[in-house]
Automatic annotation (TrEMBL):
It comes from the Bacteria. This is Putative CoA-binding protein (Modular protein). InterPro entries: CoA-bd (IPR003781), NAD(P)-bd_dom_sf (IPR036291). Residues 48-145 form the CoA-binding domain. Pfam families: CoA_binding_2.
Length: 184
């Protein structure tokens, strides 16, 4: 399991344009046995994954080799309604999921915004949410993505924030079988 997490983390960082491992506060590489933040309880993550029904994947890809594609496909296979957000794919449908150019182009509000962009770009995504007339339940930043100022801004708007985690990994790790259920 740990090797799979490391693989997923390295892929996420590569897509984000950063081939280095995340750094700790002292500037050293994070211990890969602690690839997760520990700020979120299992109950908190489980509650979020149960409440969420619709997801906008910012930075979604049409390439099956990309983690954003894998995560979107996984979430759809578990019953979530997914919309890809990628200006280069706007107007297309991939795996049955429609794609739009930006969050303002979403046809309906979503419960979760899953960010597959680098840490610096996460701030722009949060700023894109602010003028909308709705708020997501959660903004989820993928493995390797942390932006404390963006998180503080979202939290000030009443939006939950999860950073440096993957909903696909958390869903499986928590034993969730389907929306609202537990694995037997």
């Amino acid at each position: 399991m740990l090797l799979r997490i490391e693989f997923f983390l390295r892929r996420a960082l590569t897509i984000a344009g950063d081939r280095r491992l995340p750094q700790n506060a002292a500037g050293g590489s994070l211990d890969m046995t602690r690839a997760y933040d520990t700020d979120y309880t299992d109950d908190f993550l489980r509650a979020i994954l149960r409440k969420v029904k619709t997801v906008a994947v910012v930075g979604a890809s049409a390439n099956p080799e990309r983690p954003s594609y894998e995560v979107a496909a996984f979430l759809m296979s578990r019953g979530y309604r997914v919309t890809g957000v990628n200006p280069g794919l706007a107007g297309q449908t991939i795996l049955g999921a429609p794609f739009v150019a930006s969050l303002k182009d979403l046809p309906e509000p979503v419960d979760m915004i899953d960010i597959f962009r680098n840490s610096a770009a996460a701030g722009g995504v949060v700023h894109e949410v602010l003028p909308l007339d709705w708020r997501p339940l959660v903004i989820w930043m993928q493995l390797g993505v942390r932006n404390e100022p963006a998180a503080a801004l979202a939290k000030a708007q009443g939006i939950e924030v999860i950073m440096n985690r993957c909903p696909k990994i958390e869903y499986s790790r928590l034993g969730l079988d389907r929306i609202g259920g537990e694995a037997d």
